[in-house]
Amino acid sequence: MSKELENEAKKYKARKTNSKTLKPLTARRYLAGQALAGILANSRGTLNMSELRRSAYEWADFMLEDY
Predict the structure, then answer these.
(1) What is the total count of domains within the chain?
(2) CA-to-CA distance for 33 and 43, rounded, in angstroms?
(3) Does residue 12 belong to any structural domain of this protein?
(4) Does pTM surpass 0.85?
(5) pLDDT value, residue 22
(6) Separation of alpha carbons 6 and 13, rounded Å
(7) Is residue 15 part of a domain?
(8) Which residues span the domain enclosing 50?
(9) Percent of the chain as helix, strand, coil, to the nearest 5
(10) Among candidate residues 66, 62, 64, 58, the one with its CA nearest the CA of residue 36
(11) Mean pLDDT for the chain overall
(12) Is residue 1 part of a domain?
């Protein structure tokens, strides 16, 4: 049983780490991830994932604006 699970995990990892599926980590994506961590840390109750994503990218865009 564990050998089957191990093989399944290896196949999944190989499929997910395909260079065609990996998106480059841009400054915008990095900042959105950091903003998302802060939003989640301060959240209470039920969260709407699409709203969270939009908010995180809005923060990232704000941080990337030139003054």
Answers:
(1) 1
(2) 15
(3) no
(4) no
(5) 74
(6) 11
(7) no
(8) 23-67
(9) 70, 0, 30
(10) 58
(11) 88
(12) no
